[in-house]
Amino acid sequence: MKSIISSKKSRKNYPDDANFKKLDEMVKNGNLDIKLILANPRTGSTLLETSFIKNTTVNTHIHEPFHGSKNAEDAQRGYATIFEKVATEAKTSLQPISIVVKEISRRLAVGDEYQRFLTLVESSPIILVRNPLLSTESKIRAVLKGLNLRKSASLQNIILNYYARTIGYNN
To answer: Is 100:65 a contact under the CB 8 Å cutoff?
Structure first.
């Protein structure tokens, strides 16, 4: 938690970004509350995001606005996406806007963009972590679903049989 608090105090020189400044002003004035879900792929973050948006106090959500960010200039598109959604909600709401932003952690790591983005997040971010073996199994299952396999073949059997063959055991 200490790094989150200290990152809110640090201000670097970032490219001039009007959308970021508008979002920052809305947060400071109490007109915007951003809840952040930060996760690696295949951790159940989309399910959690869906749960949040069913809450009536949350106006909208933004799913992976920084997708494709490779540098600080690319991050401006993410802020533009967020601001467009917030502006649309603000037109129809007399109350402060509450949004959920779900992002993949590696996309905010570009140029330490996470430090800048965290200045917009008042509440503690939700960081999801999953056992890497379960994440890998989930990814393999997704790939195997696209293959034409026997109905009796389970993912665990396929993995165990493959592993057994690679270390020298035969069926």
So the answer is: no
Task: Enumerate the β-bridge partners of residue 60.
Answer: 99
The pTM assigned to this predicted structure is 0.70
How far apart are the C-alpha atoms of 163 and 140, rounded to whole Å?
14
**Each residue of 39-84: pLDDT tens digit?**
888 788 989 999 998 999 999 999 999 888 887 778 888 999 999 9
Q: For the chain, where are the alpha helices, taking DSSP H only?
A: 2-9, 18-28, 45-53, 72-92, 105-108, 113-118, 132-145, 155-166
Could you give the CA distance from residue 32 to residue 97 in angstroms, rounded to a whole number? 5
Structure tokens at 84: 């467009």
Length of the chain: 171
> Quick one: which of 106, 94, 29 has its CA closest to 68?
106
Residue 111, token pair as written in the block: 């140029």
How many other CB atoms sit within 10 Å of the CB of residue 83?
A: 22
How many helices and strands in the chain, by DSSP H and E? 8, 4
Give all strands of the β-sheet with 126-128 in edge-to-edge order: 60-63, 97-104, 32-39, 126-128
Residue 47: closest CA among 68, 61, 29 = 61
